[in-house]
Amino acid sequence: MSIGYIGKEREYGGEQPYCGGILKLRLPFLHYGIDIQSMAQGAVLACTHFGALVVMMATLGIPEHIAMFMVAVNGSYYLWHTSFGDPGIAGWITAGIPLYITYLSAYAPGIERMHAMIAFQALVAIVFVILGVTGLAKWVIQHFPISLRSGILLAAGMASLLRIFDPKQPFFSQYPISFTIGLLFSFYILFSTQALKYRKKHNWFKWMAGWGIVPGYAIGYIVGIFANEITFPTMAQLSEKFFISAPIGEMFRTITPWGIGWPGAEAWIAGFSMAIVAYVLAFGDMLVIQAMVKEVNDAQPDENVIYDPTRNHLITAWRNILEICSMPYVVLAGPIWAGAAAVVVNRSMHADRKELDSYWSSANSFNIGALVLFCSPIALILLPAKIIGFGITLALQGYLCVYIAYDMCTNNVQRGIAGTMAGCIMAANFTYISPIMSGPSLGLVCGIVLWAMLRPEDDSPHILEQKKLAAERAKAKE
C-alpha cells in the first residue's frame, strides 16, 4: 500500500474518498497515501520547469533570483488540480510559447511589455472561466473547424522548431555538443520504432523510457560538463543556504499590476486573439486528459477516476488569476503537462494495488515531488542545464504539434488552409504592423476567410465523429 494512508477504503468501482462538491478535496494520508516512486519522478522531472526561467528572463527581463522563485511557486500551483479532483498533471500551454514570445516582443521592454503580458494572461483566465462555467467548452471542441485548429498547431510547431535552429538562440550556439546529444537521445527514446521494440524486450529500457525526457536531459548534462559547456556548482554555492530566495516584496513592486499598474485598453484589445489561440492549443491538451483517464479506468476497474471539463477549466483559470496577481508567467498556466501525465498514468495502470492504492496517490505524490525546487542545493544543481531542458521541451513540442496538425487533416483543402494560416501567423509576427493587428489576429482572420470561401468537407469534428460512428454501425450490421 502507499505510505501513510489512514483513510477509509473505497467501494469497488467507486471514487477515492474526498470532501466537497465539484471541487473534490483530497488531503495526503487522509484521502491518499504517499507514493515514493511517483514523488521521485516528480522531483527529477522538475528540471524541465527551468525552461520557463529562460523565457521570463529573456522576454520580460526578470532577474534570475526572482524567476527562480516564480518557477518554484508555479510548480506548487500544480497541486491545485490533483488536490481538488482534477486528474490532469498540470503544466504550461507549451505549444504556443514561441507565439507568446513573438507577440510580447512587439512591445517595448519593461513596463509596457509587462502590461501586455498581464492583459494577455488575464484574458486567457477569462476565456477559461466563461467557457467552463457556461458549458460552451464542449460545443467549441465539437465545432471548431479542423483546418483552423490544424493551422494553429502547425504555426506553433514550426515556430518552436525555428526557434531551436535559429543561430541567435543559445541552444546550438552555446551548447552544440551537449544539446545535440541530449536532443537526439530524447527523440530516439520517445519516437523511434526501434526503441519501441526495445521497450517490449528489455525491462531496463522500458523503465528508462518511462522517465520521458529526463534521460536525455541527464545525458546532455553529463556530456556538457565533460565538454566544458556546463559548469557544475561549487560546494560553497551548494552549502550557502537550504531554501531559495523569496523576493516577494521585489516581485510586488516590479512585475505585478499592484506595483506597476494595470494595462491600458490597447493591451487588452491586442491580447484577445492571442488568448483565443492559447485556449485552442490548450483544448487539444484537454482531449489528452480524457484519453488518459479512460486508459487508467480500463486498466484498473476497481477505481473510477473522473475528468470533469468544468472543474478543469475553473482550476486552470484560478491558476492564471493567481499568477497575473503575483507573478505574470509567460508560458501560462495550462490544463496538462502531457509528458508528466504519461508517467503518472503509466505508473497507475501497471502498479499492483499492494504498492499503489489509488491513482491519486501517484498523481499528488508526483506534484509534491516538484516542491524540491524550493530547495536551493537541488535547484542550483538543475539550473546550469536549464537551456538544454528547455530546448528539448521546445523541440519535442514542435515535433508533436507538426505531426498532430498533419494527422488532423483528412483532405488537401484542409491541409492547404492550415498551411496558409500557419504561414500568415508566422509571417505577420516577423513583419509586425501593430499590437492590435498581431500575427495571431491576422492568422485567425486569414484562416476564417479561407475556410468560409473553400468550405472543406468533413471539417467539423462533431460531423466527422458522427460519420465514423455511422460507418462503424454499418460495418457491425454486416
Report on this model:
The chain is mainly α and 478 residues long. Helices cover 68% and strands 0% of the residues. The chain is built from 25 helices and no strands. Helix 1 runs parallel beside helix 20 (359-369), helix 2 (50-60) crosses helix 3 (64-77) and helix 10 packs across helix 11. It starts with 35 loop residues before the first helix and ends with a helix. The model has no long low-confidence stretch (mean pLDDT 84).
Secondary structure category: mainly alpha
Question: End-to-end distance, in Å?
Answer: 48 Å
Give the H and E element order: HHHHHHHHHHHHHHHHHHHHHHHHH
Radius of gyration based on Cα positions? 22 Å
Number of helices: 25
Q: How large is the share of residues in beta strands? A: under 5%
Shape: globular
Largest sheet: none
Q: Which range best describes the helical content: under 10%, 10-25%, 25-40%, 40-55%, 55-70% or over 70%?
A: 55-70%
Mean pLDDT: 84
Tag the structure with descriptive keywords:
single chain, 478 residues, mainly alpha
